[in-house]
Amino acid sequence: MADETERKPARDPQDLERLLIDRQWSGDIDGMVALFEPDAVVDTGAGELTRGHAAIRALFETFAASGRKFQRGEQRPAAINGDLALTSTRLADGSITSEVARRQADGTWLWVIDRYSVAW
Asked: Does the reported pTM lie above 0.85?
């Protein structure tokens, strides 16, 4: 597992998905959480929003315990407007994710909203 000083930040909003998957596959849950703003929201489609680092960490720990792994998909080019970006990916099963990222003061990007699937 990488420690915080070894983790590369997202310099482009398109980096976030790749970094999330790489970190999940290497078992770096803290690194996964570090890709989100402290008060970020994750919508897994389960009916409740997961809000904040502690809850997001618990969500990723549950995923890790299940053995499930995120899969890479076809990313759409990010739609960037100032310090906000909309990212999305079509997964192999046909589902589409959507995320909102925000540029940080140091120029890196973090997710503020992550929706696992835009279908309902």
From this structure: yes
